[in-house]
Amino acid sequence: MKIAILGGTGNIGKGFALRWGQKHDMIIGSRNAEKAEKFAAEYRDILKRQGYNANITGSDNKNATEEAEIVVIAIRYNQLRSLIDLITPVIGKQIFISVVVPMEKNLCYISPNAEPRTIPITSDQFNADYFCFTMPEAGSATQEIENMLPAGTELASAFHTVPAKKLADLELELDYDIGVCANSEYSKKVVFGLIKDISRMRPLDTGPLEAAAMLESLTPLIINVAARNKMKDISIKFI
User: Fold this and answer.
1) Residue 130's pLDDT band (boundaries 50, 70, 90)?
2) Any transmembrane segments, and where (predicted)?
3) Which of 30, 35, 156, 162 is spaced 20 to 30 Å from 9 by Cα?
């Protein structure tokens, strides 16, 4: 398959490129095509040293979307609207996968319609930065993307609990469970296959797109647990 990573020059883009680039054609997408090609060349070199003749190219986000069969949206939440507006004219039969998480440091929302509030931390034990899931009005970033994409576009939500550094470390086998939300059984089947392409990863069905907020909210939870308990690059396994 031909897979585009929109925001592929970011932290998690490297891991996806190195893991999937062993089996699939990869397109690194960025707002700047020259920057994308620079990173693509770096990823090709890494895989070449591992014995893989990978087909990894770089392009701007719009062209990457047009050329791909699978499109992974791996950008910051606040960039969603401009990205979707950019790529909408070239959306066809691609399957989109969102790894986007709306979260803020030291800022929590009580509910989608509530005003944001900063929760004071007074105890010395917990006097540290923390992250909160800031639920969009649509319920999740995934549902917001669904509302912006053309009707009928295939969309799934996954990979929110994967630590980027470990994903990019090819010496590691990642014994993680990956939740997948999608309304289409076809989309789930394709995403399950991509998860299984990464050694020891196990895909789990976590429901329709309406359940995506539960997946997205795991990201700040994991970051907070790691920071407060002096752990590093942790993930989730259901046992």
Assistant:
1) confident
2) none
3) 156
